[in-house]
Amino acid sequence: MESVKSQSYEVHINELAKAALNQHVAQKKYSKVFLLVDENTKEHCLPVLKNIFDGPVDAILEIASGEENKHIRTCLQLWEELSQLDGDRKSLLINLGGGVLTDMGGFVASTFKRGIDFINIPTTLLSMVDASIGGKTGVDLGSLKNQIGVINQPQMVLIFPEFLKTLDSRQTKSGYAEMLKHGLIQNKEYWKELTLEGNFAEAGCIQKSIAIKNEVVMQDPTEQGLRKILNYGHTLGHAIESYCLDNPNRTTLLHGEAIAVGMILEGYLSHELRGLSKLDLDEIKMGFLQHFDRVEFTEDDIDAILKLLKYDKKNSHGNVNFVLLQAIGEAVTDIKVPEELFHKAFAYYSE
């Protein structure tokens, strides 16, 4: 399957990924090769990688899985370990895990010794179709997502769909939400294809999602304009995710589950403010609700979620900026939303 060429690196899939990894490490002659895993990828994915990677691994670093561990304290642990293991500027860090691990591993590599090489091997559908492209690295600040980080490109990203066999259906659907987003913002036919076909976790669809995101990022690598469309559903979705993560009385939502809610809510805002047709709006709502359970929100929940909007990274000059849709496949950025519409959007979602 054809590789996807991003800014300074390529995303390789299956056999091409195996060949690229072994060739790259052999040619670069790194002083040390470190492998970062969590307890899940150590058990389920590391044995697979050992059959793929022929080169030496000097040390395996392990962190605890989960969004709640994506913070600077984990980075401190990793920086200290790299230092104690005599890591230097000619070292390589291979990140084997989902988006939390690759985001954090990329940040650790980008800042250790002012930057060492890293390679990402995403093991979840979400990280394959989302974190694989764009070079965004970083950690959360408390429960506020991705507040600290840098944009820095890996040496390469390697996609092995067989890792998806280790996931439960909930994790797989979390990645499906991001794939649906790619259709909503850029490609109506892809949206239709994904909502009509059940086999979205196969290599062809993964490659198509990577290509859509890559096309956007290549035109706007530092998120000055067009790249913002990739945040559709994420302004409210991230606030919902943070609220549920920080509230002991709420069930924690996976990223895709939260942005699925966000995309319906922001679809309603799109209908009110940008002329998204009611037909398209209802299609978006039904497209998500046939795959994702509806989440219940009280008025107090909604008020608390809306207070978190002020921390969104797209904000500028004190304004909360939204990405909205004019039609399925056509997104617009930097839209300000009157406060009275938020509760109406939640009411539409709950209908």
TrEMBL record:
Transmembrane segments: none annotated. Keywords: Cobalt, Lyase, Metal-binding, NAD, Nucleotide-binding, Zinc. One of its GO terms (molecular function) is nucleotide binding. One of its GO terms (cellular component) is cytoplasm. SUPFAM superfamilies: Dehydroquinate synthase-like. Its cofactor is NAD(+); Zn(2+); Co(2+). Its EC number is 4.2.3.4. It comes from the Bacteria. It is an enzyme of class 4 (lyase). Pfam families: DHQ_synthase, DHQS_C. InterPro entries: Dehydroquinate_synthase, DHQ_synth_AroB, DHQ_synth_fam, DHQS/DOIS_N, DHQS_C. Residues 175-315 form the 3-dehydroquinate synthase C-terminal domain. Residues 62-173 form the 3-dehydroquinate synthase N-terminal domain. One of its GO terms (biological process) is chorismate biosynthetic process. NCBIfam families: aroB. Catalyzes the conversion of 3-deoxy-D-arabino-heptulosonate 7-phosphate (DAHP) to dehydroquinate (DHQ). This is 3-dehydroquinate synthase. It comes from Flagellimonas marinaquae. The gene is aroB.
